[in-house]
Write a structure and sequence with these properties.
- With about 450 residues, the protein is of the alpha/beta class.
- The chain folds into 3 domains: about 140 residues, Alpha-D-Glucose-1,6-Bisphosphate, subunit A, domain 3 (Alpha-D-Glucose-1,6-Bisphosphate, Chain A, domain 3); about 220 residues, Alpha-D-Glucose-1,6-Bisphosphate, Chain A, domain 3 (3-Layer(aba) Sandwich), CATH 3.40.120.10; about 80 residues, 2-Layer Sandwich (TATA-Binding Protein), CATH 3.30.310.50.
- Helix content is about 40%, strand content about 25%.
- It has a 6-stranded mixed sheet with strand order 1-5-4-2-3-6, sandwiched between helices. Strands 8-7-9-10-11 form a 5-stranded mixed sheet, sandwiched between helices. Strands 16-20-19-18-17 form a 5-stranded antiparallel sheet, covered by helices on one side.
- β2, α2 and β3 form a beta-alpha-beta unit.
- α1 packs across α4, α9 crosses α12 and α14 crosses α15.
- The protein starts with 9 loop residues before the first strand and ends with a helix.
C-alpha cells in the first residue's frame, strides 16, 4: 500500500512535504515518466517557491526536460501536458486546504491524475537507493513557458459558444480566493464578453480574503456582493481551480452537485453521440442518472476520486465526467476537472437559454439526503463493510461494491464507505423525500452499530 500517496497525490503539512522530500519524490516521478518531458507549476502558497525549486532540481537530476509554467492552475497543467505532448506533470498545490499545507499532484502523459495504486510504483523508485541520477551530461534542461494561461483561455473560448454571452453582456462577480484563479479568471470572463467585479484577485499565499475551500461561510463576501450589485451570477474556485462554486442571481449558494448536474445536462445536450457515456463516482446523486437517462445516455460509475474518473473517461470516451463536489471534466480540454471550463460552459448555457441560474438549478431533478459518521477502530471500518457486503439484499435491491458498499433500492440508495483519513465509516443516503432518506440512513446506521457490538 502506498505510504505517501493519497487518492490524488501527496498532501501534507511542511513537516512531511520538506524540500528534500519533494526533490526525491519529483526525481522518482521523473524516472517513472521515463526521464522524459515534464510540466511543472505551483499555486500561490507561501511554500510554493521553495518546493518548486526542489521539484525542479529533482526532475532535472532524473534527466527530465522541464517545462516550467511558474504559478498556474492545476487544469492548466493538465491541458499543457496534452498540448505540449509531455510525459507527465506536477502541480504543487494543496487545493482547498489551509495555507500551511502543500501537496504534489501528479498527472501522466494522458493528463490522468496518478492514483495511489499507481503512486505505489513512484514510491518504489523513491525508496530504492539504487536508481541512478542522470549523469552530468544527461541532466535535464528547464525552460520557462509563459503562455500557458493564454493557451488555456484560448482553448476554453474555442469550446464555448460566446455569441449569446457577448450579446447579453452579463455582470459577474468573481472570487479568486487569492489563488491561481486570479491569473486566469478575470481575463477569461472579460474575453467571454462579461462585465466583471473581482474579489480577492491578487495572488497571495497567506489567503487574506478567506481560506480556499469555497464554503458558504468563506464566500460570504461574494454572496453579499452579488446581492448588493444585482449581478447575474457569482463564481468562486477552490485553491487549484479544479472545482467551481456558483452563487445564483438571488445570492443563493449552489451546492457542487447541482452545478455538476447542470454541466452533465449541457454536455449531453451538446453531444451528437447516439448513446453518450457519462462517468461519475459511485457516491453521486441519482440526479445524474435521471439526466443521463433522459438523453438516452449510459452512466458508468467509478471509485471516488479524480484519478479514477479521468482513467474511466479516457477508457470509455465519455462525453462528461465529474463528481458531486462541483468538479467536472470537459473531455475536449483534458480528462482532468476544470473549474474554468465549467464556469464558462454554465454561463454560456444561461445566456443562450435566457433562463437565470436559479431557474436552471430548480428545473433539475431533486433528491434529499441524510448522512452520518460512525467512529470505530481502523480495522473495524473495513471489516464491517466487508461483512455488510455478504448480507442478503432485500427484494428488488442491487449492490455496487466498487468503493465501499452502495445499495440501490426502491426507497432510494445508500452508500457506506470507510474514511480514507479517519477511523470512521460514512453513511450517505438519498431518496425522493427527506423522511425516506433519513429512514434509509438510519436503517444502515443500525446495521453498522449491530456489527460493531
Ligand atoms: Mg481542488
Amino acid at each position: 500500500m502506498a505510504k505517501y500517496f493519497g487518492t490524488n497525490g501527496i498532501r501534507a503539512k511542511l513537516d512531511v512535504i520538506t524540500p528534500e522530500f519533494v526533490s526525491r519524490m519529483s526525481f522518482a516521478f521523473g524516472v517513472w515518466c521515463k526521464r522524459g518531458k515534464v510540466i511543472l507549476a505551483r499555486d500561490t502558497r507561501v511554500s510554493g517557491p521553495m518546493l518548486h525549486h526542489s521539484a525542479l532540481a529533482g526532475l532535472i537530476s532524473a534527466g527530465c526536460d522541464v517545462i516550467d509554467l511558474g504559478v498556474s492552475p492545476a487544469p492548466t497543467v493538465e491541458l499543457m501536458v496534452k498540448k505540449l505532448k509531455a510525459d507527465g506533470g506536477i502541480t504543487i498545490t494543496a487545493s482547498h486546504n489551509p495555507p500551511e499545507w502543500n501537496a504534489l499532484k501528479f498527472v501522466d502523459k494522458n493528463s490522468v491524475a496518478v492514483s495511489w495504486e499507481r503512486g505505489e510504483e513512484v514510491e518504489r523508485i523513491f525508496e530504492d537507493p539504487n536508481v541512478p541520477r542522470a549523469e552530468w551530461n544527461k541532466l535535464g534542461k528547464a525552460t520557462e513557458y509563459k503562455l500557458a494561461i493564454d493557451d488555456h483561455i484560448a482553448e476554453i473560448l474555442a469550446n464555448v459558444d460566446t455569441k449569446p454571452i457577448k450579446t447579453k453582456r452579463p455582470f459577474i462577480v468573481l472570487d479568486c480566493a487569492n489563488g491561481t484563479g486570479s491569473l486566469l479568471a478575470p481575463t477569461l470572463f472579460r474575453k467571454l464578453g462579461c462585465k466583471i467585479l473581482t474579489l480577492n484577485a491578487q495572488p497571495d499565499g497567506f489567503f487574506p480574503g478567506h481560506n480556499s475551500e469555497p464554503t458558504p461561510e468563506n464566500l460570504a463576501d461574494l454572496i453579499a456582493s452579488v446581492k448588493a450589485t444585482g449581478a447575474d451570477m457569482g463564481i468562486a474556485w477552490d485553491g487549484d481551480c479544479d472545482r467551481v462554486i456558483f452563487i445564483d442571481e438571488k445570492g443563493n449558494y449552489i451546492i457542487g452537485d447541482k452545478s455538476y448536474a447542470l454541466s452533465v445536462e449541457i454536455a449531453l445536450s451538446e453531444s451528437r453521440e447516439k448513446k453518450p457515456k457519462v462517468v461519475t463516482t459511485v457516491a453521486t446523486s441519482d440526479t445524474i442518472k435521471d439526466i443521463t437517462r433522459k438523453h438516452g445516455g449510459e452512466l458508468i460509475y467509478t471509485k471516488v476520486g479524480g484519478p479514477y474518473l479521468a482513467e474511466e473517461q479516457i477508457r470509455c470516451k465519455a462525453v462528461s465526467g465529474g463528481e458531486e463536489a462541483g468538479g467536472v471534466i470537459w473531455p475536449a480540454l483534458s480528462p482532468g476537472k476544470d473549474g474554468f471550463a465549467t464556469a464558462a460552459k454554465i454561463l454560456g448555457h444561461v445566456c443562450r437559454t435566457g433562463k437565470p441560474l436559479s431557474r436552471q438549478i430548480n428545473s433539475l431533478p431533486h433528491y434529499y439526503n441524510s448522512k452520518t459518521r460512525i467512529y470505530c477502530s481502523a480495522e473495524q471500518k473495513f471489516a464491517v463493510i466487508e461483512k455488510l457486503k455478504l448480507e442478503p439484499l432485500e427484494k428488488g435491491a442491487e449492490s455496487l461494491t466498487l468503493d465501499g458498499l452502495r445499495v440501490n433500492s426502491k426507497e432510494g440508495w445508500v452508500i457506506l464507505r470507510p474514511s480514507g483519513t479517519e477511523h470512521l465509516i460514512r453513511i450517505f443516503a438519498e431518496a425522493k423525500t427527506p423522511k425516506k432518506a433519513k429512514a434509509l440512513m438510519e436503517k444502515y446506521e443500525r446495521k453498522v452499530r449491530e456489527l460493531l457490538k
